[in-house]
Write a structure and sequence with these properties.
Elements (H helix, E strand, L loop, with lengths): L3 H12 L6 H8 L3 H17 L2 E6 L3 E6 L5 H25 L4 E2 H8 L3 H14 L7 E5 L2 E5 L4 H15 L5 H6 L7 H18 L5 H19 L12 H6 L1 H18 L5 H13 L12 H18 L7 H20 L8 H7 L1 H18 L5 H17 L5 E5 L4 H14 L5 E5 L1 H6 L7 E4 L10 E3 L6 H16 L12 H4 L7 E4 L4 H14 L7 H11 L8 E2 L12 E12 L4 E9 L8 H12 L2 H8 L4 H8 L7
Parallel strand pairs: 6-7, 6-8, 8-9, 10-12, 11-13
Antiparallel strand pairs: 1-2, 3-5, 4-5, 12-13
InterPro entries: BglG_antiterminators (IPR050661), Mga_HTH (IPR007737), PRD (IPR011608), PRD_sf (IPR036634), PTrfase/Anion_transptr (IPR016152), PTS_EIIA_type-2_dom (IPR002178), PTS_EIIB-like_sf (IPR036095), PTS_EIIB_2 (IPR013011)
Organism: Dielma fastidiosa
GO biological process, one term: phosphoenolpyruvate-dependent sugar phosphotransferase system
Length: 643
């Protein structure tokens, strides 16, 4: 039942002949703007029942029209666009125009509540994590920036925020979407510059590198057009300046081209800033990618450790080995400079290659101090793909046929996206439906098609012409399960022969800890008292958790810390009497992967056994029933200790 004030607002809405603002309604009713927002939400269903639609227009006000909205789907799209557009507007006004923004005025202009603005700020601050140190903040009813605000930090913040606004199916579409923030002439000039360079030097550069460096150039050109420049910090030694000379030449070449096209001038500081991103994105003058000798020695150690763990020889393919070294070099530069490169496929990589991801993390962490870096999940994910590609390369090259009758542009779009998720050595060929039916397909391993195909006796993965992320996940899953992994015979029992050597009944415990932190601290303390780990191991595990999640869909978490702080390898178990939320999943069992540095070579065999246990029917059945400490001991085959 409506209150007197709500009925009064309903009558006002039905009588008004033009748009009115929330502030006007608040004055008429003698209530707060927040109350008006709640009244409008309450009255909207009532208006719909009477055959009216309530329209809220950002920056204009509210009106009621006779008839229903066109369709709910369009309303939802408009609302989503509205959220993104107002966030971009905040970025434009505060970072690009350096304007003060009133919380109330912005809410009135976009017809949103203070809580919605706070959600916008939270979302944008999440994009700024691990970047320039700047954060959006609300103080004294104003939306401001906190942190050390200067041209460099603002540029870095804009580049990081652009990542969240790059929406589209390909390179051109993603950058064009930034036109709400930057001049379209600048965007088009940068697109032409980057694509021409890639074609001229004939390098195969991943799309995320292209979009990232384009974003940097767009921000720099936008700043320069407004007379804003980055100060040259002069923080490089002469030797480093010489080492980066090819990149400085390339940076000035890029900026010189933009100067001619856009009639803007760039400073030395702008050029040096661009150099850092050119190195990070591996866009360099051809054949000038040089690796410091001290770093090369460490990179070689990383590759040697991975060879022992995944049973490959990188020296069998010198070109691929050199590419791995170059990737490690670019990765190290990014991590040292604090340049964050978002890995769009991280969740897929962790899901599809979980064991290889953990092995790669452990190996990188063992050399992180020597390289003076703090590793990140995004970078580990990129490296995992390189290692997985090499593992696949040890098998035969796969041939994939793409059937796409929608035209060249659509075929190119799908082809580019396939190359992003499938190993680079695969041969991918495109064909029309009629050509596919005419050709001998004996040498084809599987087909990706945008249309239904008949009379073709090969595995087919059906995708949409715009190839969605779900399509890519399906292709990747099919490739892993059907092409690379032959069917495995069912195990009659859990062997776990390697794992059993590193178990002890005293470290299979049951508890009621209240949080992830408490679980880790409790187990680390027990291990330290028994001499298995050193002081600081708990903190190293907690630090790992802040970088990314170690839980999985099997209701298990697999935390691990710095291997240099482990005296003796032991795999310990913490069974929760009550399941707890870890990060992404609810967890019933925590398995601590405590590997000493001198046991690194057998860590894969231990992980093999652990994943055999984690994915076993026996453990799944135990989870469905009443699982306890004794059940875990029996599953692990160490029940005799208690008999």
């Amino acid at each position: 039942m409506l209150s007197a004030k709500q009925k009064e607002l309903l009558n006002i809405l039905l009588r008004q002949q033009q748009k009115s603002t929330v502030e006007q309604y608040a004055r008429q009713l003698n209530v707060s703007k927040r109350t008006v927002y709640s009244y409008l939400d309450l009255l909207e269903p009532e208006l719909n029942q009477r055959g009216y639609t309530l329209l809220r227009s950002p920056g204009q006000g509210v009106e009621v029209i006779k008839g229903k909205a066109i369709n709910e789907e369009m309303d939802e799209e408009t609302d989503l666009f509205s959220i993104e557009s107002r966030r971009m507007e905040l970025v434009y006004r505060i970072l690009l125009k350096q304007n003060k923004v009133s919380l109330d005025a912005f809410g009135d202009e976009f017809f949103i509540s203070e809580s919605s603005i706070r959600k916008d700020i939270l979302a944008m601050n999440q994009l700024l994590e691990n970047s320039s140190g700047l954060r959006f903040n609300i103080s004294h009813k104003e939306i401001t920036l906190s942190g050390e605000v200067n041209e460099r930090s603002v540029c870095e913040a804009l580049i990081q925020l652009n990542e969240g606004f790059l929406i589209g199916n390909d390179f051109h579409e993603k950058l064009a979407h930034l036109s709400a923030l930057y001049d379209m002439q600048i965007i088009q000039a940068v697109i032409a510059l980057v694509t021409d360079y890639i074609q001229d030097v004939k390098i195969n550069l991943a799309e995320h590198y292209m979009t990232n460096i384009s974003s940097v150039l767009i921000v720099l050109a936008s700043f320069a057009s407004a007379g804003r420049h980055i100060q040259d910090e002069d923080n490089l030694l002469d030797y480093d300046r010489i080492r980066f000379l090819p990149n400085q030449i390339l940076a000035k070449q890029f900026l010189s081209t933009l100067t001619e096209q856009l009639n803007v001038e760039f400073s030395e500081g702008d050029a040096q800033f661009l150099v850092e991103y050119l190195v990070a994105d591996r866009i360099q003058i051809h054949n000038f990618e040089k690796i410091m000798e001290a770093d090369r020695v460490i990179f070689e150690k990383i590759l040697q450790k991975m060879e022992m763990l995944i049973y490959v020889q990188f020296s069998d393919n010198e070109e691929y080995r050199n590419n791995l070294l170059l990737h490690l070099n670019a990765m190290t530069f990014r991590l040292r400079k604090g340049l964050k490169l978002k890995n769009e496929l991280l969740k897929q990589i962790k899901r599809e290659f979980e064991m290889l991801f953990n092995l790669t993390w452990v190996v990188l962490e063992s050399e992180a101090d020597a390289l003076h870096i703090h590793i990140s999940e995004d970078e580990v994910g990129f490296l995992v793909i390189h290692f997985q590609n090499f593992i696949d390369l040890q098998q035969r090259t796969k041939r994939i046929l793409l059937i796409c009758p929608q035209g060249i542009a659509t075929s190119e779009l799908i082809l580019n996206r396939l190359r992003m998720v499938l190993p680079a050595f695969n041969a991918i060929e495109t064909a029309s439906t009629s050509k596919a039916l005419r050709c001998n397909l004996d040498s084809i391993d599987f087909i990706v098609s945008t249309v239904d195909v008949e009379d073709i006796h090969k595995p087919v993965v059906r995708v949409s012409p715009v190839i969605t992320d779900e399509d890519l996940r399906n292709i990747m899953s099919f490739y892993q399960q059907q092409i690379l992994q032959p069917p495995k015979s069912e195990r009659s029992e859990l062997k776990l022969s390697t794992l059993k050597r590193y178990l002890h009944p005293d470290f299979i415990i049951e508890g009621e800890a209240e949080s992830k932190e408490e679980i880790i601290m409790n187990m680390a303390e027990l291990l330290k008292q028994a001499g298995y780990v050193k002081e600081g191991y708990a903190q190293s595990m907690l630090s790992r958790e802040t970088v990314g999640s170690t839980d999985n869909i099997y209701q298990i978490a697999l935390p691990h810390g710095d291997i240099k702080l482990v005296n003796k390898t032991i795999i310990s178990f913490y069974l929760l009497k009550t399941a707890k939320k870890w990060k992404n999943h609810t967890v019933k069992l925590v398995i601590f992967f405590n590997i000493a540095e001198n046991d690194l070579t057998i860590s894969k065999k231990i992980l093999d056994d652990l994943y055999c246990l984690i994915k076993s029917r026996e453990l799944a059945e135990a989870f469905r029933q009443k699982i306890d400490q004794r059940t875990i001991q029996v599953l692990l085959g160490i029940g005799e200790y208690y008999d």
